[in-house]
Structure to design on (274 residues):
């Protein structure tokens, strides 16, 4: 128990800071905190001695659990404003959930370094999209059905589970490229975050159950300490980030964040090679 507390003390302080940082960035850029939390948690867990074999899985699983805790209130707010596309949820929701379940099962069985590499590579691609994406790009007037729905929804769900994100980073650009207004896309992505987070977190809990390398006070690959400390600070700091966004150039902020994401991803790859 004493050793657990020694490990827990620095971890707690760093997790409070991580939650605050994720909340500010989410408020500034309208990007889900998972894209921030996973690389930050990956670094923090390494600093406190969590085994390389499990630290990316704990980072991803904990991020998905925080999404469950925060997405519900966000989704309710967007629902009251009429910005949730229920037709999208009914059509794409089951396919995305299937992708999440497949991605969770895959992630919990992959070797830690391979999962780290997948996160880093996809994060670099997303960094380019965040920095250079044009909201006026269009692929069509409505979202595809059939095979297109399976491919798009399955990819969103699987990558969300593999990366520990709520899917908004992918769902919003996909919806807007098919004619959905950005406000409605953001509101729908908030609701989708809850739909992704629940099966994703449960999958990581089950997949990590009984693993001897887990940090103290973990439920499978979900750190209960992380969940308890990140959610309050993230929620408290998100409004501050939103107020800052009114004063700062949003496009410049997006590019700064994209650089941060690319550098962090590159650092993750560096740890794998060296």
């Amino acid at each position: 128990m004493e050793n657990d507390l020694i490990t827990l003390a620095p971890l707690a302080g760093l997790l409070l800071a991580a939650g605050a940082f994720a909340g500010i960035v989410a408020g500034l850029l309208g990007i889900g905190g998972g894209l921030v939390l996973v690389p930050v948690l990956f670094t923090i867990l390494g600093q406190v001695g969590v085994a390389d074999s499990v630290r990316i899985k704990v980072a991803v699983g904990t991020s998905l659990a925080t999404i469950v805790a925060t997405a519900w209130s966000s989704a309710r707010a967007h629902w009251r404003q009429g910005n949730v596309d229920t037709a999208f949820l009914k059509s794409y929701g089951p396919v995305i959930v299937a992708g999440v379940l497949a991605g969770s099962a895959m992630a919990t069985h992959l070797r830690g370094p391979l999962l780290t590499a997948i996160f880093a590579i996809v994060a670099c691609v997303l960094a380019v999209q965040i920095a250079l994406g044009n909201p006026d790009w269009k692929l069509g007037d409505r979202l595809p059905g059939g095979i297109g729905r399976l491919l798009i929804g399955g990819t969103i769900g699987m990558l969300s589970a593999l990366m520990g994100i709520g899917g908004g980073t992918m769902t919003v650009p996909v919806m807007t490229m098919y004619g959905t207004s950005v406000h409605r896309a953001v509101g729908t992505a908030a609701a989708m975050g809850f739909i992704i987070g629940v099966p994703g977190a449960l999958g990581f809990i089950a997949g990590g159950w009984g693993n001897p390398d887990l940090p103290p006070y973990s439920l499978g690959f979900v750190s209960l300490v992380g969940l308890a400390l990140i959610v309050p600070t993230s929620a408290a700091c998100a409004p501050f980030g939103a107020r800052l966004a009114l004063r700062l150039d949003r496009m410049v902020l997006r590019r700064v964040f994209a650089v941060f994401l690319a550098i962090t991803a590159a650092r993750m790859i560096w740890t794998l090679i060296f």
